[in-house]
Amino acid sequence: MPTLPYANDALEPVISQQTLNFHYGKHLQTYVNNLNSLISGTEFENKSLEAIVATAPDGGIFNNAGQVLNHTLYFLQFAPHPSHQTPQGKLAESLNRDFGSFENFKKEFSAAAVSLFGSGWAWLSADKDGKLHITKEPNGSNPLRNGLTPLLCFDVWEHAYYLDYQNRRADHLNVLWDIIEWEAIEQRYQQQ
User: Could you tell me the maximum CA-CA distance found in the chain, to the nearest angstrom?
Assistant: First the structure.
């Protein structure tokens, strides 16, 4: 389990303590427990989470590893009081280059997240040349499967927002921008 760098009520009103307790404390914990059980005694037992997601065949190990990695990146990209409200540095330059502007990126990213059918994830990822891509991944999949480095994600499984926003996925996604810690996203981009 990743350790949250904030208290369970620190993201309110964007994400309530009740949602965080269920989403982080129950859903993610279940994926971690399932994965640890499934990899015991297998070739994946001592591999990194990223290696498991990139190489495991579809099925239980991949599904649980994907959800652990996705949720870890998701929860660690937030801050109750982000240092910046917009990206800075190389990431900002790349967003402008690849999407025309930060505002246009937000529009395209939100549209991808809202339009993803069923459960899954919207991702901002970088390829090996640093070009940025928006992808929609079903269920627990991750851009690593396609050789991309995941940077930013929005979880569109209903458990991520239903207690706070019911069926208003778009409303939830619109306020997530308020708690993105862009320094964390910049670090992921610099390390790719």
Answer: 49
Question: CA-to-CA distance for 138 and 185, rounded, in angstroms?
Answer: 22
Rg of the chain taking only CA atoms, in angstroms: 16
CA 94/CA 90 separation, integer angstroms: 6
Backbone angle region of 134, left / alpha / beta, with phi > 0 → left and psi within -120 to 50 → alpha: beta
Per-residue pLDDT of the chain (192 residues; tens, 9 = 90+): 899 999 999 999 999 999 999 999 888 999 999 999 999 999 999 999 999 999 999 999 999 999 999 999 999 999 999 988 899 999 999 999 999 999 999 999 999 999 988 889 999 999 999 999 999 999 889 999 999 999 999 999 777 777 677 787 888 899 999 999 999 999 999 987
Residue 123's DSSP bridge partners are: 135, 153
pTM (2 decimals)?
0.93
Beta bridge partner(s), residue 155 = 121
